[in-house]
Each structure stands twice: as C-alpha cells, then as structure tokens.
Structures
1.
Amino acid sequence: MLVIFVGPPGTGKGTQSKRLIRYLDAVHLSTGDMLRAEIEKGTELGKKARTFMDQGQLVPCEIMVNMIATRLQELPVDANFLLDGFPRTIHQAEELDTMLGEMDRCIAHVFALETDRDELRRRLIERAREEGRPDDTPETVSRRLEIYDAQTSPLIEYYQKLSLLRVIDGMGTPDEVFARIERALTTDGNSPSSSK
Ligand code: ADP
C-alpha cells in the first residue's frame, strides 16, 4: 500500500507518519528528513538544498524528483510505503504518477491533514524552541505557509479528482488525530495487510 500525507508545515505530518508506518509496517520516505540527512553529511546536494530550505523556499523539483526516484527504486516491489513531504507541487505529483506507473504501483490514500492557522503558527514556534530548526523562524514560517498555499494546496483538488483524498481533522491530540486516520483506512475497506 502507498500512502501520501499532504498538509501545511506544522500540521503534524511527521508525527502521524511515524504512527502510521508502525501501523502499516511501511517504509517512511520523508523528503524533509532526507534533505536534513544530506545537510548533516555535508554533501553537495545538502549544501545546495540548504540555501533554499533556510529561506523557507522549495528545493528545485529536479533534485527532489531524482531523490525520490532513487529511493523508490531501492524498495522491494511489494513494500508498503508512506510519502511525507512529497509531492509538494502539481509537477511533482505528475512525476510521481509516471514513476509509479513504471513500477506498476498505485496510490491507495492521500491524507490531507487540516489544522487552523493560529494552531499551526503556535506549533511551529514551539518546534523552533524544542528542535531549533533553522527554517522555523517567524519569517521563514510565513514564507513556507505562503508557498504551501500557492504551490502545494492545489494538490488537494488534484487528488480529490482522482478520488484518493481523505481529509483528516488535524486538531486535537496526536492520539485523536491518529484515530481519525485509522478510521479512514478501515472505512475504505483496506486493511494494513493489503499490499500495493
Ligand atoms: P515542513 O512540512 O514542516 O515544511 P519538511 O521537513 O517536510 O517540513 O521540509 C522542510 C523543507 O525541505 C521545505 O521547507 C523545503 O525547503 C524542503 N523540501 C522538502 N520536501 C520538498 C519537496 N518535495 N519539494 C521541494 N522542497 C522540499
């Protein structure tokens, strides 16, 4: 099974992804984590990505598409996996459709986590305090939210048209939100064991 999370920064994609990969026994592909690992290792890719990330900008599409393509090719053909942070633009979604078509795989669910803006800003400021992420400053947070609205939110309609979208209320405790995700998975008649 292939599951995608879409939602603005601070909406809880990372937290819910960690729970869902345990539940589905799936591989977690988080582009934010992959990029941060490249930065940590000091690779050329990491250095290039950092200049965009620190300003709250998107990393250029060709870097991201290559990164995801490489990781997808490494996965066993029947692995369950969860994409967190990719796709982030319509162009990336179309590239993903092409890659999955070549692998004879399809998307099972796209979860859109919805949280109100005041709560998002509160969570991001708290994360900045706890984790010290350089892209969690007030200016970059505002830019990331603007970029989400302009470039990522059109994915909601894109996946709605494909009947893949499951809108999840992201307000409440992580347990409450996860219970909604679990319900959405089971009401669709899919069990964690179903592959593809
Ligand atoms: P968040 O969802 O909180 O914004 P992520 O950890 O998913 O954080 O991503 C951090 C940063 O990494 C983004 O602001 C962006 O610069 C970069 N990034 C991650 N995924 C992508 C992507 N698919 N396309 C372009 N840039 C990306």
Note: Strands lie at 2-6, 27-30, 81-84, 109-114, 165-169.
2.
Amino acid sequence: MKRTILITGGAGFIGSHVVRLFVKKYPDYLILNLDKLTYAGNLENLRDIEDRKNYRFIKGDILDTELLLRIFSEYQVSGVIHLAAESHVDRSLHNPDEFAVTNIIGTIRLLKAALTAWHNNFEGKLFYHISTDEVYGSAEEGFFTEETPLDPRSPYSASKASSDHFVRAFNNSYHMPTVISRCSNNYGPYQFPEKLIPLVINNIIHRKPLPVYGKGENIRDWLHVEDHAKAIDAVFHKAKPGSVYNIGGNNELKNIDLVKMLCRIMDKKLSRPEGESAKLITFVKDRPGHDLRYAINPSKIISETGWRPEIEFSQGLESTVDWYLTHAEWLAHVTSGEYLKYYEKMYANR
Ligand code: NAD
Ligand code: DAU
C-alpha cells in the first residue's frame, strides 16, 4: 500500500461517504476507519465496501491514547482525516460536557498521538480536521470567509471552535502539518434522522407532526454530502499545510421553505393528495440561541483546488427522499430503541 490514512468517525453520516470515496478511488491506500459506534455510528452505512482489501474497521474511542498509539505504529499512519464528533446542536444544549469531552479532549488526544508517532518527522504527513461553518456564529449579513472571526454560540459550535484552535496551536507550536475545513449543512443518504431533512422525511412517512422551530425563518446553506466528500478529497490532496478552507454550495434556504419542498416531494412519492403532508407542519418553541443564518463563501476552495459542487439541490433532495423511501429497514433500525426514547423526551416539552 502506498500510504495509510486514518479516518475517525467513518461510520457516521459524512464519515461513511468519505470512507467509501477514498476506499474506491484510492485502491493503493489503506483506509482505517476508527469509530466508537455511538448512537450516530452504524456499520450498515458501509456494507457495500466492508470486504474491500484496502479497508479496515477498528471499533474504538479517540480518547483512548493507548489504542491510538498502537494504530499509528502498527499501520504507519501518514494521514488523519478527523470527523469523529458529537454533531447535533440540540443534544449539545442538554449535554455540553459530553461535547467538550469528545470534540475538544478527543481532538487533543488524537493530535498528541499523531505528534508522538510522527516524532517531528512531518514529511508526507497531514492532520486534516473537519470543522463546521457554525464556528463563525450567525451571518446576519454577507458571507463567512476563512478570515471571519470565530464567534461560536452553541455548546456544539463552542466545542468545535475550541478543537479548531487546538489544531492551529499544534501547527503553530509543533509545526505539525494541519488543515481545517469548515462546511455548511450537509444532506443526503445515511444522515441520522434527528437532523432536519431526514427527520421531516421520516415523520411524513409516519404521519407525525413536523416540528419547525420558531417561525421557520432561520436560513441554512445546504450541500449534498457526496459533494462534501469530494471537497474533503480535494483539500486532503491539494491544500497548503496550515490553511483553512470553507466548503459550501451557495444554496441558502429558509427552513420553512425547505420543509414545504419536502412535503410536496413526499406527497408525490407517496401518492398522497397534494397538501396532505403540509398539514403536519407544527411550529414549536424555538431552539435556544438559534443562529439565524449560515452562508458560506466557497471561493477559496474553488480557486485553489478546482473543486465545485456538482449536485443541484432539487435533484439532490429528490434522490435523498428516494433513498430514505427505499431504505425503510435502515430507518426503522436507527430510530428504534434509545433514539425513540430520546426523541419522545426531546419533543415532549416543545
Ligand atoms: P455523525 O454524528 O453522523 O457521526 C459522528 C461519528 O463519530 C459517529 O460514527 C460516531 O460513532 C463517531 N464518534 C463519536 N464519538 C466518538 C469517539 N469518542 N471516538 C470515535 N468515534 C466517535 O456526524 P456527521 O454529521 O457525519 O459529522 C461528521 C463531522 O463533520 C463532525 O466533526 C461534524 O462536526 C462535522 N460537520 C458536520 C456537518 C453536517 O451537516 N452534518 C457539517 C459540517 C461539519
Ligand atoms: O452548519 C453545519 C452544521 O449543520 C453541522 O456542523 C452540524 O453538525 C449539523 O447538525 C447542522 O447543524 P444545524 O443545527 O443547522 O442542523 P439541524 O438539522 O439540526 O437543523 C437545521 C435547521 O432546522 C436549524 O435552523 C434548526 C431547524 N430545525 C431542526 C430540527 C431538528 C427545526 O426547525 N426542527 C427540527 O426538528
């Protein structure tokens, strides 16, 4: 094998698309997927590639230094793509300490393990940290650029911003080659149905209320997860060490408009009368501290790497709906048990 890349959080939503892309596109790379398999991690997301010769799954925690050091030394890891995290804003409001442990301490442990294993020999090495546009706060006007000051406003984004700072600190203090990218909202297959798009699809299937926070006027900037995975590939192979890249598709939508679009698509797909799903829309108490708008300026990644989003939003949304409708078993599996209890508790007070 030409090189070994350690991908953390590879059994989650975005991680599984990144693992799939790298395993298929780079048969001469060994791809290690380190994942703790929390409620959000699921090996069913990777069934189609799990038997490939250049892929290994390791069940484990990024907080486990001994395990990390063993992996680095046994496999001669030369690149890290770090996606493992607690990723849901609503959960972070109930459990901020869990977010600090995984997202901050977990990232520091991974950085320290890479530093120890690489012994100041950084030739051909890269630590790539996957961050989020939420670290910039709320874009009341204009667009987030890589120079926008960090202004995290939820426990989730505070933990991600903190981990970004540690990554930069390892670059500055120890000269470790690092890269950070900050992407906007992703959608597509295998997204856990606590996030807006799959939650709405799942609730329409089961004729459950569609909870829209506040007045539904908050704006998110949506990008298909396969476009994000390709952007990660471009950044991993072309970025200058020490740099930051924003990733987005210039695709802003108000939540309420997005939910109505999904209702229209679902009525057609399920052969229900037009307007039936929209009757399920329920305005609920707003998310505390809800950021009004995220909007990414992706011109740096486009001009420096040549990456561009390829999936047009309305087509991507329709194919995502098709994916969920044809993966009823996956949906039933991930929404059973613990998640069902969490969901019922979460929405009981709204
Ligand atoms: P996800 O919640 O679907 O997956 C996270 C994965 O990390 C899961 O497989 C989970 O088991 C694993 N994990 C959690 N704690 C771990 C630990 N201690 N050790 C090892 N594995 C652990 O998340 P996602 O939506 O795929 O997001 C992936 C990354 O991308 C995160 O860092 C997130 O902040 C970032 N991001 C997400 C979005 C988005 O729209 N979803 C946008 C921008 C950035
Ligand atoms: O911007 C990137 C971020 O996007 C990532 O860093 C996060 O990991 C990811 O979870 C996502 O965060 P959001 O909070 O924007 O995503 P979520 O799907 O939770 O919510 C999208 C919008 O929809 C947000 O304005 C809140 C609203 N919403 C969400 C849910 C779950 C509702 O109105 N109702 C809901 O039930």
Note: The radius of gyration is 20 Å.
